[in-house]
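Format notes (please read before filing issues)

Several people have asked whether sequences and structure tokens are stored in separate files. They are not. Every record keeps both together, in the order shown below: the sequence lines, then the token lines. Line labels are part of the format and must not be stripped during preprocessing.
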Amino acid sequence: MSLLKKIKRYSVFYFVTSICFAWNLQAKVFDKDLLQNMAISYVATQINDLDNKKIQLSALPLDSRIPDRTCLTDLELSIPNPPPFNRQITLQIKCNDTQSWAQYVHVRVEEMAPVVIVNENLARGEIITSSHLSIEMKQIHFIRAQYLNDPKILVGSRSKRNLQRGMPVLLNQVCMVCKGDSVNIYASLRGLKIKTSGVALEDGTLGEQIQVENKKTGKVLNARVDGVESVKVNI
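Then the structure lines:
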């Protein structure tokens, strides 16, 4: 082989090698986790009233067979429809360099709300204290109307059944006024607030109508439960 041919061959080899080296040096690598995190961050920027305590974003896992992506330019992210979003968004991540590619990522948008749960197992008839309760964020479409978001409302009430640790507390699982309890009876008359004592004749929880007996007069009254050991009557 002539010296001239050798020089030409090596020149081509070094030229190709330099191009490959430059590509590896400049191209950014995007693995599946990075693409998912980019999708979540982009969706977050599109939700103007995003509150980390009320909205939770998560990306569905990408197919494990998808290889790591490389791109020499900044990626282009887009969503076909503007906010407000549905519970699932399909987002496109696109590379516009010579090795053009596009990847779709599905992002879930879950609205969250605070729910009162019990921290430990409670037996039927046990008086509930503040240490028994805490707040947990749950997906709003799983929340029932009877769930509570303020633990203070329940402090001093009594469990009507066994309550399991970590479970939300429903109003129908407690009695704020239990049969036989002494209660405060409140009434309003011509701008005056009247208070007297009575005895509950049946169980009741917040907002329920129950019968109570006035201790002073012995009269049975229909009253509405408005708190622990507290009822209101209409005069």
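For reference, the curators noted about this record: Helices lie at 3-26, 32-46. The longest helix spans residues 3-26.
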